[in-house]
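Sample entry (737 residues):
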Amino acid sequence: MLLFFAALFAWASTSATAGIKLSDTPPAEAQEPTKLEWLDLWRQRVAGLEPPLFAPAPQLEYECDTEHTPTTRGLLIGAGKAFSNYGFTLPGPANDIQLLTSAMVLRGASPSNIIGLSENATYDAVKDAALALVDETSCGDSVVLHFSGGALSPHDLVLDFGTLGQHRLSEFSASQFTIETGAHVLAGGPFVALDPSRPDGQDVLSAAALSELVTILRNKGADVTVSLDVSSSMAFRIEQRQAAIDPLQFRKLKLLGEQACLGRQRDAQGKQLAEPACEPSWSPTNLAPHRGSLTVFYGTPLGNPGREAKFAIKQGGKLAGDEQVYGYASYQLATAITSTDRTTVGALARAIRQEQETLDNPQSHSFVTNAPDLDIIAEGRSELNLQQNEIIIDSPSLDRAGVKLRTPQITISGRIQALGQPLNVVVNGKLAQLEGDSGFRATVPLTAGVNGITIFASTDRNEALRRDFELFYEGDIRGALNAGKRYLVVIANQDYQRGSGITNLQTPVGDGKAIAQIMRDRYGFETTLRLDQETQRDLVLENATYRDIQLLLGDLSYAVDETDTVVIFYAGHGEYSDTTGTGYWLPVDARAGRLVTYLDSKMITDTLQLLPAKNVLVISDSCYSGMLARGGAQLDPVDDADRLRALQRLSDQRSRVVISSGGNEPVADGGGDGHSVFARALINALSGPEGVAFSARELHAKLFNAVTLQTDQSPDVRPIRGAGHDGGDFVFVVTQD
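Predicted structure, serialized as tokens:
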């Protein structure tokens, strides 16, 4: 898509003929159209330039049928031929519509409730589909409006008017169109580009008309999700248009055209105008007091045409030479809908964000919503978001941060708000005691850490309700965080072989011994690895050769389990090559300047990817140690308001994190009272922890403050890119106070 818009820009700049016939000569003498005639010319050539999809608009508010089962409905538009008059077509939009339809059906939506337009997606076709959608939509439904393809700002909308020349719509903002006649047309943009219905024109759907469609659906009580995978999608500002017609936020706004018509019937000199100064434009419908929710997914940032996701097509197990093309944002959204446990906006946003974090050059996107916990696929909702049906928790009091408890059990009490009376209430698989007309009470045992609470209820009106929340019992948090075995690998390279051309160091061996002692005594780490019933090996290597390190990492991959955690501490020489752009650890048998004898960071990364252990932390005290962190995203701070709960969540996710003694820079050997400055700071931090548990990012904060006070080094902490990091962190747990 990016290449297409570059070509389109070149076309508009050079007036190259492609599809629409352009004038190669200056316009012949012709009578200049009047202001209103210009407006009519644009209206004739651009279908959908000004009018809404509904005229007149449907009634403002609808009665909700409380017995209606919420249904997912969709209007998915893929205008791949939108620019066919310019000699271009886009292969992605049609694939986008099919993929999104498949994803929605997989999560429970009925294919008969999804309208997909990827052939002849003209303005009239979109209008007919929108009318059918509104007619079928009921209160409580979830409606997805998706658009794939291109978009046009008033500046991008260029047409050739024969002898009148080639013009952009934006030219008339202050010249040919007066404010009264043209401003409402320009203010309606930008425009979704639709398939053209005539060879010398363009079909569009304005942002104003799209917002009007959203309003009508929301006023019917539907929850509406708008997904825009078009160029510069954030310029549509759907949420701002919706806010402007919300009587709960603003007083009713008069139309620009109506305002302009009042007292503006004369020109600047006060002369009466010979033609009407304006004509009334359509008025956007106000939002009803009881309306559905709004979610908008902007797939592309301002000024960005959007990227494509391309996949090679295989036939008979071999590449066929063709590619399957999708809009990048459409593909990510469909993937997120398919893969997340729930289709809430928050879950989809997290899934897309995690995918973006793996990219070198991610495409910016944005979610805007007033219902982050509502599933956009209604059939997959764990609880229906209708006010009549709800499980209300009276005790304990719940908030966004959850509840922290200090006793191993809790009594939960609440009420069932529904049309019928509760027949039974089940809390975590056990029947609760019913109280009064709609109340219930249950005592629930807790284990240390996060406890998921699931409440089911059924009523005599055959209503099913569900409520999920979490309670956090501090208890012995060590048990929750300390599952599996904990292994420490130490590689301390100090004395390099004669003739290597590499100078010896003073502190690595002592640093390694001191850290190994603390990790064994205070944190319960093992420094030996049992390979089988008869064989075990030492995980502390002093003055290790290239082969020693390879064999140790290989044995580690063979013997550790998916529940285990591993810390790898390296102290020794490090090197960086401008030629390869790679950082290296130097074994004691390395030869200066000979990269083949060095241990490169990619090999280390690949080893960590294959390592079954859930959490791995690499602590590298060497020159250029920051190269292992190259390309990794910065880690967010731990939430102090709910710290132990946050630590458990971090430890539950697979992590591959590195703490480096510096960035891509030399570091000091010594200066730390018999240790390196970095090792001394690490020893002190591990010897005097605050609390029973802390994360690698919290450890780094202490190291950074201590090291930067003494040297120019800047310790860093980041996920190791390409090593299988899934968003967690390494958590240290004190086993001996």
